[in-house]
Design goal:
Elements (H helix, E strand, L loop, with lengths): L20 E8 L6 E10 L6 E5 L3 H12 L8 E8 L9 H13 L7 E3 L2 E2 L5 E2 L3 H12 L7 E5 L1 H7 L5 E5 L3 H8 L7
Parallel strand pairs: 3-4, 5-8, 8-9
Antiparallel strand pairs: 1-2, 2-4, 6-7
Helix pairs in contact: 1-2
């Protein structure tokens, strides 16, 4: 006798798990590590309680960026958030702008252009802080030695941007504030 396979009614199937939105923002790592990536993913929590996991990015830094950019902490959100630093084990403050862009992109479901490199730190007043001269010198050396593929667009504070301007294969965007960074990366979000 043959056994019959019973298929449950369609209504009783489990819904497909939510697809995470992922974003990657890049920064300059330094000599020997030309590109550092900040990767982030976010998806709705099935329980209604969010959770944050990080690898290579201090949790306090991630929460501070969320507070600066969104006015909230990831700890209190109802989403699952995963953040990862790639190509190095140590987070540096100069990756802060890339972290803010990745966090914004993943939560706003926006794409970060892959040719963009973000330099600088976002302070508590949402201003982009200058990059140390030695970092800029090393960046220019890495570009000239072709450790970094061009063409690229570098988003940096205005004083730093001036020093990079004129480099072959590099478009430079000077951004003094978080609002200017947002417009540079996502011009379609410009108000008015």
């Amino acid at each position: 006798m043959r056994s019959r396979i019973t298929v449950p009614p369609r209504e009783s199937y489990e819904p497909a798990p939510p697809v995470p939105h992922t974003a990657v923002a890049r920064s300059y790592g330094g000599p020997g590590i030309p590109i550092v990536e900040i990767q982030m993913s976010s998806w709705p929590s099935s329980t209604g309680r969010g959770r944050v996991t990080t690898a290579g990015i201090p949790r306090a830094v991630l929460d501070q960026v969320a507070g600066i950019v969104f006015g909230v902490s990831f700890a209190g959100c109802d989403r699952m958030v995963s953040a990862r630093l790639v190509n190095t084990d140590k987070f540096a403050r100069r990756y802060g702008l890339a972290l803010a862009v990745a966090a914004s992109a993943v939560l706003a479901r926006q794409r970060v252009p892959s040719e963009f490199i973000f330099l600088g730190e976002l302070d508590l007043a949402r201003r982009v802080r200058d990059v140390p001269m030695r970092v800029l010198e090393n960046l220019l050396r890495s570009i000239c030695e072709r450790e970094i593929e061009t063409p690229i667009t570098i988003v940096a504070p205005p004083a730093s941007a001036e020093l990079i301007e004129g480099t072959e294969g590099v478009e430079v965007v000077g951004a003094a504030t978080w609002a200017e960074v947002v417009v540079a990366v996502w011009p379609h979000l410009r108000k008015g």
